[in-house]
Each structure stands twice: as C-alpha cells, then as structure tokens.
Design a protein that fits this description.
Low-confidence stretches: 1-6, 12-39
Oligomer: single chain
Largest sheet: 7 strands, mixed
Structural class: alpha/beta
Radius of gyration: 17 Å
Number of helices: 7
Strand content: 15-25%
Strand order of the largest sheet: 1-3-2-6-7-8-9
Distance between the termini: 16 Å
Helix content: 25-40%
Mean pLDDT: 85
Shape: globular
C-alpha cells in the first residue's frame, strides 16, 4: 500500500527547505557557444538510491538533472518518488560537461537552447555512450528494459525524451523541457509520456511544452501535457506528485 496524498505532502515538507536550496540551480539554462562534441566513449559517474522496501529492485527510474545541477543533488528526488515506487531502484547520472559558474555543476549539452540542429547533433553523439551506460545498468541490476522509466528536468528532459523514444521504455516524465524532433528518426518506441511545465517558466517558455505535445501527438505517441499555473522553471510538490503517480502506473503495467 502506497502512502496517502497527505503523507506525501508531509514528507515533502521535511525535505522542502533543503530541496529549495539544492534545486535552486534548476533555474539555470545554458547559452554557451555551439561546438561539436568529439567524445565517443564517455563514462558517467552516478548516485543511486536502493528500493525503500529493502527488497531486490523490480524496476528502475533514471533521473536526468538540469543544467548546472548534479546527480548528487538530483538523487534527492528519489527519496520522495520512492513513496510511490517502494521496489524501484533510482539512478541519477552526472552530465559529462562541467558548468564552470557553479562548483560541481554539470551539463548534458553545451549548445544554446535555440539551436535545434546543433542540439540534436550533441544529443546523438552523447546518446552512444549513454545507451551503453544504460545497458550496463540493466545487466548489473538484472532489470528488463520494459521495467525502466526516465525522468528529466530542463536539459535532462530533452535527454530523457530522446533516449526513451529510441529504446524499450516503461514511461517518460519531461519536466520544464522540450522534445527536439529528429527528421532522420525512422523507428521510435511508444512509451507513455508525461510533460509537466510551469506556466510562468521564464527559462523554457511554456510554448515549448505546448509545441512538444503537439509534435508528439502528431507522431501518435501516448502523451499527456500538464501545465501548472504560478510555477516557473522549477519542480513543485504538485508536479512531483503527478510524476510519482504516473511512474507508478507505468512500472506496474497499468
């Protein structure tokens, strides 16, 4: 039996003061110069949180942090999502690039967010190593591909969508990010997708979420868009609870 809504909110408040500090850097977005990524075999450091139940994991959620954040911070989401998924292993990998303005901050992509062709080029190159990394995780923890879900924030949402649509995936949560359509994509998987976006987001305008939903819907994807009034480029209790319930459904096979 999962915790009730009130229990979830009570637990959230325990984490909230620290949560605001460590995730305040979520509001960052990258505007660096475009440049090619040449790495072909990148390795990823990560943080993990084992199932809250103490049992062997029957599923896995991979958490992709936003620009300027890190796996060490982002794994704190797992403590809250674990209330919905007590038998799930949570893994948060670090982006491979350093974000120099913040000590310990990481990036997935260095390209300006407005340059779609260059973003796709970076994502495709990075995906080669990320897919190897994900395959190794599945082998290490003996978890089938259909029992793995992705959650990403901002840059991490772009990574979650690109990767999750190109391999067997139980579900994808994209928070405050966007889908970069790839005209060269031939075969896409069709996992359930939940897009959550703050209406007041000044880093990734809400129009990006609406456009992403439109593009994914045109591809006949099972996609749901939730817009949160009064929320900016951030993760709030409502969005996190919706994500937990969605992932619970995805990984239970409902």
């Amino acid at each position: 039996m999962f915790h009730s809504r009130m229990s979830f909110l009570a637990h959230f408040l325990l984490f909230f003061s620290f949560f605001i500090v460590v995730f305040g850097i979520f509001t960052l977005e990258t505007f660096g110069n475009s440049k090619d990524i040449k790495e072909k075999n990148i390795t990823f450091s990560d943080y993990t949180l084992p199932p809250a139940s103490g049992k062997k994991p029957d599923s896995m959620v991979v958490l992709f942090h936003g620009a300027g954040d890190s796996a060490e911070n982002f794994i704190f989401l797992a403590a809250l999502l674990g209330q919905f998924l007590p038998d799930t292993l949570f893994v948060a990998p670090d982006g491979p690039k350093a974000y120099k303005p913040i000590p310990g901050g990481k990036l997935w992509l260095s390209t300006s967010k407005n340059n779609r062709p260059q973003l796709l080029k970076e994502i495709k190159t990075l995906s080669l190593s990320l897919n190897r990394y994900l395959d190794n995780l599945l082998k290490t923890y003996d978890i089938p591909p259909e029992k793995v879900a992705f959650l990403g924030f901002s840059q991490g949402a772009r990574m979650a969508l690109h990767l999750g649509l190109r391999r067997p995936t139980a579900g994808i949560v994209a928070m405050s990010g966007s889908y970069l359509d790839d005209p060269t994509a031939v075969k896409l998987s069709r996992p359930p997708i939940l897009i959550i976006h703050g209406v007041e987001d000044d880093k990734a305008p809400v129009a990006l979420a609406q456009e992403s939903h439109k593009r994914l819907d045109a591809l006949k994807m099972p996609v749901t868009l939730i817009l949160l009034p009064g929320i900016g480029h951030d993760i709030d209790p409502r969005g996190l609870e919706m994500a937990g319930e969605f992932l619970q459904d995805c990984l239970s096979g409902r």
